[in-house]
Design a protein that fits this description.
By secondary structure, the protein is of the alpha+beta class. The protein is 41% helix and 22% strand. The chain contains 6 helices and 10 strands, in the order ββββββαααββααββα. The protein has helices at residues 75-84, 86-112, 115-132, 147-154, 158-170, 186-193, and strands spanning 6-8, 16-22, 25-30, 36-42, 61-64, 69-74, 136-137, 140-142, 174-177, 180-183. The strands form 3 sheets. A 4-stranded antiparallel beta sheet has the order 1-5-3-4. The chain has a 4-stranded antiparallel beta sheet with strand order 7-8-10-9. A two-stranded antiparallel sheet has the order 2-6. The model has no long low-confidence stretch (mean pLDDT 95).
C-alpha cells in the first residue's frame, strides 16, 4: 500500500481484516469540514480493523501513513477460527481490548493532558509498541510522521506540535532529527507524560 492510500474506507463494509506487516498506518475520522482526527496509530503487528468482522459499515477509515506491507484475513476464515479455535479467539478478543485501552488513554490525553504531556505520552507508547516488534531499542526509534500528521494525532496545530517538540528537546528528554527519535531520559519522559504502560498489556499472562 503506498503512503496516503486508504487501507479501509470510512463507511465501507470490508470482507477482510488487515494486519500491518511493515510501515505505519492510522485510524481516522473525517469531519464534514474536511478536518481529520487520527484516533490510533498502527505499527507492524497490528490488526487495523479486526473489529470489522463484527462492525459493518465502518465508522472510521484506515490510511497508510507510510508505504505499508499488509496481509489480509478473509472474514469467512476468521469466523471459522472463532468457531473452532477458542484459544485463538481469546487472543483476537484481547487484541481488540488493547485497542480499546489505547483509545481510552488517547481520550484522556486529548481531554486532560497538556500539549507537551500528550506528545511525551505518545512517544512513550510508540517506543514500547515498536520495541515489542523489534523496531525500536537502545532508546532509539524511527517515527516517519510529519508534524501535520502529529497535529491530527494530538489535536493540535502544526505550530503547537513544533513548540512541544522544542520543549522536550530543550529539557533534554529527546533528540529528534528527521525520522529518528532518540530518548535522552526515559524516566523523565515518563514523568512528563504520567505514562503507565499497564494498558498495553506487555506482560505475559494466560489467556
Amino acid at each position: 500500500m503506498p503512503a496516503g492510500r486508504d487501507i479501509v474506507r470510512q463507511h465501507s463494509s470490508p470482507g477482510v481484516s488487515t494486519l500491518v506487516l511493515d510501515g505505519f498506518a492510522a485510524r481516522y475520522v473525517m469531519l464534514t469540514n474536511g478536518a481529520r482526527q487520527i484516533t490510533e496509530l498502527n505499527v507492524p503487528g497490528d490488526f487495523v480493523d479486526l473489529h470489522s468482522l463484527m462492525m459493518s459499515p465502518m465508522d472510521h477509515g484506515v490510511v497508510a501513513l507510510t508505504r505499508c506491507t499488509v496481509a489480509q484475513s478473509p472474514h469467512d476464515g476468521l469466523r471459522r477460527l472463532t468457531e473452532n479455535q477458542p484459544h485463538l479467539t481469546r487472543l483476537l478478543w484481547l487484541d481488540t481490548l488493547i485497542d480499546a485501552a489505547v483509545h481510552r488513554q488517547w481520550v484522556a490525553g486529548l481531554g486532560r493532558r497538556t500539549a507537551v504531556a500528550r506528545l511525551a505520552h505518545l512517544l512513550c507508547e510508540l517506543y514500547l509498541r515498536l520495541e515489542i516488534v523489534h523496531r525500536a531499542g537502545g532508546g532509539r526509534m524511527e517515527v516517519p510522521l510529519s508534524q501535520a500528521v502529529l497535529a491530527d494525532v494530538l489535536g493540535l496545530s502544526d505550530v503547537h506540535v513544533n513548540r512541544s517538540i522544542a520543549q522536550l528537546r530543550s529539557a533534554g528528554l529527546i533528540r529528534w532529527a528527521g525520522r529518528v527519535v532518540e530518548i535522552g531520559d526515559w524516566d523523565a519522559l515518563v514523568r512528563q507524560a504520567e505514562f503507565d504502560p499497564a494498558y498495553l498489556r506487555l506482560t505475559r499472562a494466560p489467556v
